[in-house]
Write a structure and sequence with these properties.
single chain; alpha+beta; Dna Ligase, domain 1; D-amino Acid Aminotransferase, Chain A, domain 1; 4 domains; eight-stranded mixed beta sheet; five-stranded antiparallel beta sheet; 19 helices; 20 strands; globular
Length: 485
């Protein structure tokens, strides 16, 4: 067990701490507002599987030690009725696997503690809402209802996170990206902060630059009264970050300042999860942002021009697959004008693809295995849908925003994606062939013809010029895509 304390550890290693705890440690070193935490390194997960899925003997004692360290910082005690401490238990692989493994929030609550939370906070709905959220999430993740003993809850949650390393969705994700199966996940235990604690509270996701369009301006979504899982699950339609600026301008300014610090520190566009508890900002995680092909090229060019990257580093920020997407054919304005529009939503990952609409991940997987092009259209997506998302040519959802699970994973996979088309809009399209043009967020009837590359994107032209100049060296992994057009 490794404590993550104020000032951070100088010897932090991402492969040891996992990505989530590594980012927590780095933010603590920078003096940013982060709830206290401790982490079981990835090696403990490896121990768990090497011993036939038996929890290592040292874990129980180290859980007590780690919780005591958090108690000393926040002045609350785990399982104590008078001043209760609640924690989150989160996974964290060395390489980010967004949404592929499990998390449990609000752990440590039971009916008596829930009642005390309401009395102490002055918010009568707070305790019951927090308890409801915990029971629902714990039951889904662990596979059984929680006991009222916080320590039993904690031990069960840690085992569940270990188990999620080898879940079907995590295994499928690693197979798709060529990641090793024996690396294991870290388990981070962190003090809870509450976005559902009355007015002046909420949760959100901020990107230091737009991960969809590639614009240099910060981009994010904000959900008053929510917790982090509400935003990424796609079950809710969040507000834009401008709403946070209007309601809590000081918090908004602090958040943007932190984003600038983190972008300089990590040398890349940042995806930052944050919570505001009664007007106080807390940062929960920062990682390199998953981005669309368009954004990958534009960010690389912009950061090179700003002096933040060398040409070599800029070329390494874009994959051959991403460049191929940008150089692929697209819908002409004339074809789009003459097509029948079926639905419209928010762009999550630009691109164009056609296929038959299916409404479940299993059906998408089955039909794709038969060689058919499919478009996965669902109310929202969750981590259990990853096999269908991998199989689909495009992904569209009825609800959720540009920081939802569907949006984040589609950008990682390079799948055209449109989100937030409206409840009940997509289900009637099942079995219909459509064309998804997620450069503008539109779904059209039929398989529409595509035209060649227009060459109107200045950043793309600049980037392709760099590829040609360095074809025998830094740009070797990209030259095939440029030669194909």
């Amino acid at each position: 067990m490794i404590l993550l304390e104020a000032g951070g550890r100088q010897d932090a290693d991402r492969t040891v701490l996992g990505g989530k705890a590594f980012s927590i440690n780095r933010m603590l070193r920078l003096g940013l507002p982060v709830p206290p935490a401790f982490v079981f390194p990835t090696s403990v997960c490896v121990e768990y599987y090497d011993s036939g899925k038996s929890v290592p003997a040292h874990v129980a004692g180290e859980l007590r030690e780690g919780i005591a360290s958090i108690e000393a910082v926040v002045g609350r005690r785990f399982g104590d009725l008078e001043a209760p401490l609640l924690v989150s238990v989160r996974s964290g692989a060395a390489r980010s696997m967004p949404g592929m493994m499990d998390t449990v929030l609000n752990l440590g609550v039971n009916p008596e503690i829930a009642a005390m939370l309401s009395r102490q906070s002055g918010d009568q709905a707070f305790g019951a809402d927090t308890h409801r959220r915990f029971v629902q999430q714990f039951t889904h993740v662990v596979g059984k209802k929680p006991t009222d003993d916080p320590w039993e809850q904690l031990e069960d949650a840690v085992v569940a996170v270990f188990e999620s390393w080898n879940s079907p969705r995590a295994t499928a994700y690693r197979r798709h990206h060529g990641l090793p199966d024996d690396a294991g996940t870290a388990v981070t235990v962190q003090a809870m902060v509450f976005g559902n604690l009355g007015s002046g509270s909420g949760t959100g996701v901020l990107f230091s630059r737009n991960p969809v369009t590639g614009d240099a301006e910060p981009y994010g979504e904000w959900l008053p009264g929510g917790q982090g899982e509400d935003v990424v699950s796609g079950r809710f339609d969040p507000l834009s970050l401008s709403d946070l600026a209007d309601s809590m301008p000081a918090v908004h300014d602090e958040l943007l300042a932190a984003a600038r610090v983190l972008e300089r520190e990590f040398g890349d566009v940042q995806d930052i999860e944050f919570t505001v508890e009664r007007g106080r900002l807390w940062l929960l995680q920062a990682r390199s942002a998953k981005r669309s092909a368009t954004a990958a090229v534009r960010h690389a060019v912009a950061m090179r021009q700003e002096g933040l990257l060398t040409v070599e580093e800029a070329l390494e920020r874009v994959t051959a697959e991403q460049l191929g997407v940008l150089l692929a054919p697209h819908l002409s304005p004339e074809v789009r004008a003459g097509a029948t529009l079926l639905a419209k939503g928010e762009v999550a990952c630009p691109g164009v693809a056609s296929g038959v609409v299916v409404t479940s991940a299993d059906e998408a997987d089955e039909l794709a295995a038969e060689g058919k092009d499919v478009v996965l259209a669902t109310p929202t997506t969750n981590p259990d849908d990853v096999h269908g998302m991998l199989a689909a040519r495009a992904i569209v959802t009825e609800i959720g925003g540009a920081t939802s699970h569907a949006a984040v994973v589609s950008r990682e996979l390079g799948r055209p994606c449109v989100v937030g088309c409206g409840e009940g809009i997509l289900t009637p399209l099942a079995g219909r062939v459509v064309t998804v043009d997620s450069t503008v967020g539109e779904i059209f009837d039929g398989a529409l013809p595509l035209t060649g590359v227009s060459g109107e994107d200045a950043a793309l032209e600049t980037f392709c010029g760099w590829v040609r100049q360095h074809a025998e060296g830094w740009g070797a992994h990209l030259i095939a895509a440029v030669k194909s057009v």
